[in-house]
Amino acid sequence: MKRILICLALVLTLVTDSAWALSPTKIAQLGLGGRIAGIDISHWNHTGGAPIDFKKMYAAGVRFVMIKGGDAQTAADALALKYLLVDHKAAQQAHLYTGFYYYAYLPDSSDPVYIVKDAKAQAQKVIWRIGQVGGYNARDLPVALDLENNCQRVNGSGACLKYMSRANVTLWAKTWLTTVAAKSHRKPLFYSYAHFLESAMVIDPALRQFPLWMAHYSINPAVPTVHPNAKSVGCYAHSWSNANCTAQWQFWQYSSCGIAGKYGVPGNRVDLNLFAGTSKQFLALTHGTWTPEPTDALPQDEPTTMQIVSQSSNTTSDPLVVTVDVLRPDQTPVVTGTVQFKSLDPSLPIGKQSAVRAATGRWTLSVTGLVAGNYLGVVAFTDPSGTHAASEVPIQFQVSQAPTPTPSPSSTASPSPSPTKTEAPPVDSCAGQIRN
């Protein structure tokens, strides 16, 4: 009798799980304001490499989780992939719906043709990433584009030197969104915040067809009159703004200060989200499965070619600065990797190198500590992910000796007393945010 009861329980569990997976009709609306609740996570939420307890997350009322699954920077992208492969599977096994977001960086260019080329290359990277998790299934939400920074040129320390025009930011975003939609047969989400949408982009009706995921903290979504498009006075005007001052949003990231342990997440805090509509509207986003074809598979050791775009002449007091493009066989940019200078003459020492990503497949390489002489070497491309094969391009340049500066006479100053140092009070980054 006991064996029969165990078998019946197992059958009932399998039938229930199968029914949930194949024909869900209702999603529990347990979030603030009676909405569907969600979480978004990245590698930062795996404190010390600890796993996330998605079953506990589901039990706490969460029904969807957005996972960081890609990044325009190579090292960050590899880390995102590592946790996406684990979290995507574990979350779906816990009956959560999943999506993933791609953090984008804009190219250092003002040429619309090049901007479109870069957006398509980053879109291709995401299409491959969808394929790496098996394509879209019935529990997947569309991928999201995370665009919240309009800097197009940075220095070696990461400070922004130039910002992209509003028209070009809009062109890049629209190209990425339409490219991913055409291939995956689902409209991707667009994640950002209202001030960016208003100040860094132009109003374009074509953007409004893509679901908006807005970040807006310090207001309570449980209050019926509250919405994530409000300023202290008035509202933001952008592509998703409505005539009544609200915005056409689908997802709202309303806090970055959720109580992590409550949701099975290691650490102290986690991002909290809500879906705007009904179960039917939520499930509509999961319609349309896509399984990648062999031609959509991520390349392995794909041949590459390199070309030097520009190089500086320099003295021993100036760095060598070289801009290089690395291209795939179809002449589109590679999507990952890095470059470095290799001298063919060991008698001429070099100092430090830094390769700053200027755009997808384009790097600005700076080499310091060069001595006077004629240099012959190569700029070499490598890709730790194994997607693209290594390649190199020859480079030759001359470094002349810089004049020795005349030292200024030093003056002796009387020492002045050091001021008393006052400890600044700690800043609470969660002040005013909802913590639940």
Q: Helical amount among residues, as a percent range?
A: 10-25%
Within the largest sheet, what's the order of strands? 1-2-3-4-7-8-9-10
Cα-to-Cα separation, first versus last residue: 46 Å
User: What is the rounded Rg?
Assistant: 26 Å
Helix count from the secondary structure assignment: 7
How would you describe what is shown here?
This protein is an alpha/beta fold. It is built from 7 helices and 18 strands. It has helices at 2-22, 54-59, 74-93, 112-132, 166-184, 194-199, 279-284; strands at residues 36-41, 62-71, 97-103, 144-146, 151-154, 160-163, 189-193, 212-215, 249-259, 269-275, 305-311, 314-315, 320-327, 338-343, 353-359, 362-367, 373-382, 391-400. The strands form 4 sheets. It has an 8-stranded mixed barrel. Helix 4 (112-132) runs parallel beside helix 5. The radius of gyration is 26 Å and the shape is globular.
What is this structure's SSE topology?
Layout: H1 2-22, E1 36-41, H2 54-59, E2 62-71, H3 74-93, E3 97-103, H4 112-132, E4 144-146, E5 151-154, E6 160-163, H5 166-184, E7 189-193, H6 194-199, E8 212-215, E9 249-259, E10 269-275, H7 279-284, E11 305-311, E12 314-315, E13 320-327, E14 338-343, E15 353-359, E16 362-367, E17 373-382, E18 391-400
Helix pairs in contact: 4-5
